[in-house]
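Researcher: We plan to redesign the surface later, but first we want a full-length starting point. Tokens attached.
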């Protein structure tokens, strides 16, 4: 059996690479880790979370092919709602949602991907 220490990265196709990078930078403070101009991609993130984004201007934001959402554990969860409001990011499901021993805020990125901002790692499970 392999021992997993966490999710290494999430790979997403995006309609507009710059817009997507700006969104994750403004919301989560993600920085450019690697630019891949030959594949129209960038790896962005932090020491604890990374996204590999590849531009596909023809992306159909209705067809997520089984993808539901990506969740990020947020150390300063108490600041989520105010930051989303200041950035003009709409919160789904009426705002903060309680689950198990945690609370979450669900939003959408510029491509329509659902993002969960979570207070407690793994819902406390």
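Model: Full-length starting sequence:
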């Amino acid at each position: 059996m392999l021992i997993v220490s966490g999710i290494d990265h999430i790979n997403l196709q995006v309609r507009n690479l710059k817009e997507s990078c700006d969104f994750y930078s403004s919301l989560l403070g993600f920085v450019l880790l690697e630019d891949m101009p030959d594949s129209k991609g960038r790896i962005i993130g932090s020491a604890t979370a990374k996204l590999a984004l590849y531009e596909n201007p023809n992306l159909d934001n209705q067809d997520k092919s089984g993808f539901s959402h990506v969740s990020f554990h947020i150390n300063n969860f108490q600041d989520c709602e105010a930051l989303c409001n200041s950035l003009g990011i709409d919160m789904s499901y009426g705002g903060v949602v309680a689950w198990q021993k945690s609370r979450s805020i669900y939003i959408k990125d510029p491509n329509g991907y659902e993002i969960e901002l979570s207070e407690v790692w793994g819902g406390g499970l």
